[in-house]
Amino acid sequence: MSARVGVTAVLATLVLADTLLAGPAIATRWRLTGEARDECLGHAFEAIRRAGFEPLSPASESMIGRRGDYTASIRCVTDQRVVFFVTAGPDPGETERLMEAIYRLF
User: At 35, is the secondary structure helix, strand, or coil?
Assistant: First the structure.
């Protein structure tokens, strides 16, 4: 009986370790833009804020926000006429839902 308990404990530990090592879920999207960089960053700030994220200090081409265990980033590469959207967090479904929110609100 104790051998079964030991094997079960080892298997449970391996499954848990595998789950923990899987890392965060990440969702990405992109779209074309014709906006100037400052206008794009303004829209990025508002999209992140309206989706419930706390905006952090912007970078030269990016706006980043944090919401609990979730992070969102919108990068405005206006010289290439592209905007990239990224969300990351522990739950794949919530990560995708937050992606759809910032993409729609942009």
Answer: coil
pTM: 0.78
Return the sign of the alpha-carbon dihedral for residues 73, 49, 45, 34.
positive
Contact by Cβ (8 Å): 102, 74: yes
β pairing state of 54-55 and 62-67: antiparallel
Q: Which domains does the chain have, with CATH numbers?
A: 24-105 (3.30.310.50)
| Residues 28 and 85 sit within 8 Å (Cβ to Cβ) | yes
Is 56 in a helix, a strand, or coil?
coil
Length of the chain: 106
Using pLDDT thresholds of 50, 70 and 90, give the confidence band for residue 11.
Answer: very low
Task: Give, as one character, the DSSP assignment of residue 80.
Answer: G
